[in-house]
Design brief:
The structure is a single chain. This protein is mainly alpha-helical and 211 residues long. It folds into 2 domains: 62 residues, no CATH class; 121 residues, Tetracycline Repressor, domain 2 (Orthogonal Bundle), CATH 1.10.357.10. 68% of the residues lie in helices and 0% in strands. The protein is built from 10 helices and no strands. It starts with 8 loop residues before the first helix and ends in a 14-residue tail after the last helix.
Length: 211
Amino acid sequence: MSPPDSLPADARVARAGRPLRADAQRNRDTLVGAARAAFATADDAVPLESIARAAGVGIGTLYRHFPTRESLVEAVYAAELDDVVASAQTLLDDHAPDVALRAWMNRYAAFVATKRGMIDTLRAGWASGRIVTPATSERITGAIGTILAAGARDGSLRGDVAAADVTAMVLGVFLSTAAAGTAERTPRLLALVADALGAPPRPAPSTAGSG
């Protein structure tokens, strides 16, 4: 990855968190949209040149915004993750927290499974920590935390579990089942995670001394 001082101006502005110019922001959004469509339908790694062509820009414009394939994949992953994160509250509106948790994890798994054109980059990024940046991890952890808090309130989920620990477990499931031929293990492993998060049964009332 290029050192910060060698990045193009637009990339340095984006990395610093400052807003882009309107035209630069439009180009960036168009590139992310083109990449989302390409990664959703491709079986193999998508050439960046084809994404630039689909967005109607030159490859130089793509590299100004995304100096590496990893940075583009991260942007696509984060944009689509917004939809998954927002679904946590939607599921809670319709289901009990323990049911919502299982449904949310399965939805997240389906989201990851559709990233066929991104899987090699995602796998490497998860392993190294490059793809799951603090901002992305916070999104995941925030969604999980919302469900855990609701479950703790109604007694359907444990109240002594840190959301960040659940994030680590869920990402570990995805990483361990990313290899070909192991995807069928994902729902079983996520079910085990959900089972571990369920509140323990309440002890039956004592009958000692009755009668």
